[in-house]
Amino acid sequence: MSRLRIVGVDPGFANVGLSILDLFPVGGIDLVDTKLVTTKRDKKLNDDEHLRLIHIEDEFRSFIDGRDVDILAIEAPTAGLMPGRGAKGGWGVNPVTVRTSALAWGGIHGICRDRGIYCVKIGLGDIKKVLCGKKTASKQDVIDIVVGKFPTYSKWPKTKKIEHVADAVGIALVAQLDPIVTVMMRRLRTGEG
After folding, report:
1. 189 vs 69: CA distance, rounded Å
2. What is the CATH architecture of 4-190?
3. Measuring CA to CA, which of 105, 162, 173, 189 is 20 to 30 A from 137?
4. Taking residues 107-132, what's their average pLDDT?
């Protein structure tokens, strides 16, 4: 049976969530695989971002190699908002988080563009709104909904870092709403070119 294969990515630098979903013309969805890629800052190096980015790109290539991926669904680079960084201790921007998230995003996006994989950017908060019905949903709400959609899948991380993998799966699920993905699915159903 024909299918569309989506790789979902929650881009970061310390933690990158990866997922692969198969969408079938009859409406079924299979969670094929997930992976959590982690990097740690090496304080001995003046600038270790280059080495960390190489690790992320290599892990991503390894994850998709031989898997015949049709679509990249990737969350937009983070706005870098972090508690305690703003006025009077409120939310503020962390420029390091913005930069490193954009580096990971660009590296992964470039790999997919080079391979002819259609790229869908999922906006910040869209996962929560689509899956949970509100942009104010908690990380745990997203995890519960995503894990609940795939009750027989057993490779979920057993730590709080599950949030990155759950986000990657959620991003892939939300990508189904992209107009081009909708057309691709319709072509699969009807057998059009």
Report:
1. 18
2. 2-Layer Sandwich (3.30)
3. 105
4. 93
